[in-house]
Amino acid sequence: MLNLRAALQSLREQWHRAVLSATGIMVGSLAIVLLVSIATGVRADITGQVHELGVNTLVVIPGRIEDGTFNPNLGGASYLKEVDAQRLSKVPGVVRAEPFSFVGGGIRRGNKTATPMLAACTEGWFQMRPVRMQEGHTFAGPEEKQDVVVLGSIAKDQLFGKANSVGEKVQINGRSYTVIGVTEDKKQEQSLFSFGSLQNLVYVPYHRLKTIEPDLPTSRIMVQAATDAEPKQLLKTLDASLGERLDRQMFQVLTQEDLLGLVFKLMGILTWLLTGLTSIALFVGGVGIMTVMLMSVNERAKEIGIRKTVGARRKDIFQQFLFEAIVLAIMGCLAGLLLSWVVSILLTQFTPIKPMITPQIITLAFAVCLGVGCVFGLLPAASAARKDPVAALRME
Q1: Closest by alpha carbon to 217, among 102, 104, 124?
Q2: Which among 62, 211, 228, 364 has the fewest CB atoms less than 10 Å away?
Q3: What does DSSP say about strands 133-136 and 107-109: parallel, antiparallel, or unpaired?
Q4: For 363, how many CA atoms within 13 A lie in the half-sphere containing its CB?
Q5: In this predicted model, what pLDDT tens digit does every residue of 104-139 receive, in sequence order?
């Protein structure tokens, strides 16, 4: 404790130098905390979006995901067809299976345009996953064969503003559609991914679009499983059923865990890569502490000589200077955490990015900064401990 008090007293007397030394650590901890907290927030956001599908929803994709890699077919042609959805709907344990297609292009109304995610779906999709409506209703019955559209809330605001849109006409890829409903997206103002939220898709009838574009590919097949169906066994049954018509490389049935697992694996790799890059700032901060303290050792040689003369051991001097380095690192970490908290609040208030600073992130920041202080404080502490007291007293 005596050596720690001596270290704190020295830092108070030279607080200008202490602040300068701690600045590098502050910048490094700020970068790491913000990066990891943003990644944590994005992860929670993606999890929420996937969970919106419902716990009993399976997705058939036109390719395979193996060992964390995508089949190139996922970005190209789809071999899935509506007949495959009809086949899967007859499998025991399946409530319904519906074709789902992503459509290119955008929406126009007069001189106003919007480019949301367009999707062609059936009435069964809305039964599988009900949506909250801001205006109107979803298509059903005869409307599945008509040129009607259900807008997402962002597209509606871009095209109509606050005005009522139900009954109005919009142009989708050069064809006129009548708006019959607008979905309410509860995440519109809260989510980084609100533009891709399932509640903010713009829906057109699958069967109507199929008559207009006979070659319309089926991008996905959404499968609603019965609540009492055993997931793993159902997955095998669905796989076997589709395998009667398609090659195994042409499709894969995924659960929520599969979808999230791949996303989290890719995000984890990216997060660790960026964390490694931002750690350079901490390394620079550590070098700054070491450099300033090495200069301080020479300037405080007389102080070291006096302490050794009155009975201080080499161990005491070593601990004093090491404590100084650790305290500087902790000061920088605390300042970085405080600044990260302020920036996180600003990002949450004014951007779609929602960082999440968790206790684990705070612990990580403290552990890393403590390690930096220990490692980069060793050389100055050893240099001070080796000082000869007689030679040190002679120095001015």
Answers
A1: 102
A2: 228
A3: unpaired
A4: 3
A5: 888 999 899 887 889 999 999 988 888 888 899 999
